[in-house]
Amino acid sequence: MTGLGGEYIRVKRNKSGIITYGGDQGFFSDASADPEEVRKRRMGCGIVAFGDLLLYVAGRNSQYRFKGSECYVNRVLAEKEYKDYFDDRYAFLGGLSARTRNGLSGFKLQSRFNRMAKAEGWKLRAKWGFSGRRMYCRMEEMLRKDIPVILCIPLMIFKKDKKQGITFYKKEKDGYSKACTVSAHYVVVTGIFKEHDGIYMSISSWGVKYYISWEEYDQFIHTHFLGTILGNLLYIK
Q1: pLDDT score at 56
Q2: DSSP state of 206
Q3: Using alpha carbons only, what angle is made at residue 49 by residues 200 and 231, rounded to the nearest 5 degrees?
C-alpha cells in the first residue's frame, strides 16, 4: 500500500461525538436562511479538500505552516473550529458564486495553491491534470511524499449521463459494499492499495472514509465527455 504517513484531519461531530475522517461541508446547514451557508454545504467539497490538504501538510512539516494554521494542526477539532478554518480558506479561494450551481474549478485550486506557495516561500507548485495517462503514477508519487491528493469526480455534461457517477464503497469484513454513486465532487485520496485482484483508493469525503475502484474511475473518465479534464487531480511537486 502507498498512503499518507500521518493521522488525517479529524473533527468531532457536535451531535454524535463521532470523529470524522477529514472535513465535511455538511457542517453547514442546508436549511439556513443564509444562501451563502447553503452554497457552502452544497458546493463546498473543493474548499474542504483544499483546506484539508493544507492542514495536513502543515501538521506533518513545520515549513508548510501558514498564518493561523498553528491552532488547527495535529489535534481533533471541534465543528466550530473547523467551520472557522473553512471560512478562512473560503475567503482565500474567492468564495462560491451565487450565479452558478457548480463549485470551484480545478484551475482555481491550482492558481490559489501556487499563489499561496509563492507567498509563503514553499518549494511546491501545483498543476491541474489534463490527461488520464499519468494520474495513477502521480497519485503514488504524491502519497509517497506524504501529500494528500485532491481528486475530482467529473461533472456530467449531457442530460443522458446525469444519473451516472463513481461508486463509493464501504469496507466490510468480507469485501466492499456500495455506499452511494457520486459525480461532480471533490475527494481527497489518502492511500492506494491492491486487494481482491483490483486497485482501490481510500478517500475522505463528507468526513467519512470511503473507497473507490481505480479501474472504475479510470474507465469512467475515459468514457465521458471532457472526463479527463473535469475528472483529474491537483498534481503537487
Answers
A1: 98
A2: T
A3: 60
Break the chain into its structural domains and give their ranges: 2-236
Lookup: cell for 81 = 473550529
Contacts (Cβ under 8 Å, ≥6 apart) of 98: 35, 36, 39
Distance of CA 193 to the CA centre of its chain: 18
Tell me the mean pLDDT in the region 148-161: 93
- Helices marked H in 145-213 — which ranges? none
Q: Given a cut of 90, is residue 90 above it in pLDDT?
A: yes
- How much is the pTM? 0.96
- For residues 104 and 113, the answer to whether their CB atoms sit within 8 Å is no
- Distance, in Å, from the CA atom of 51 to the CA atom of 74, rounded to the nearest integer, reads 14
* pLDDT above 80 (res 31): no
DSSP annotation of 180: E
With CA atoms as reference, report the closest residue to 63 among 115, 121, 146, 112. Answer: 121
Give residue 13's pLDDT.
98
| Bridging pattern class, strands 11-12 and 2-3 | unpaired
Cell matching residue 201: 483508493
**CA 152 to CA 87: how far, in whole Å?**
21
Return the pLDDT at 98.
85
